[in-house]
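Example (one chain per record):
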Amino acid sequence: MKKTLKLLSLLFVVLFAVSACSKDDDPVDNDFFVDDYKGTISFKPTGGEMKGPLQGTVTVTKVGGSNYSFLFSDEMEDINNIKMKEGDNTKLFIEDGTLGIISIDADKLTIAYTDDDGTWTADCTRD
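Predicted structure:
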């Protein structure tokens, strides 16, 4: 009887722990992606000369709600205040309808983004 009670107690604890983990945890609503990503980056201003590709850093910052900024090293212009949407609970994608892609997951940041200011690329990983 004691063995059965212990087994049921253990099963209850495991069931409670699993149910407490939310599948609805939206990465747009948390700071999971805020970090430094290192790798190959470049920027070409509209009508200007290309800077890179070179080894650098992109710092991802959350600026409120589901908006993020991408701060480039090596005196490259930043991408500011981009609205992101949830992918599959591990990715974020651009929501504002601009040309390109910004994809972030647990280990990787990929950027191929163009707006009126220029074109950015990044192929970076998180340390």
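Caption: Confidence is low (pLDDT under 50) at residues 5-28.
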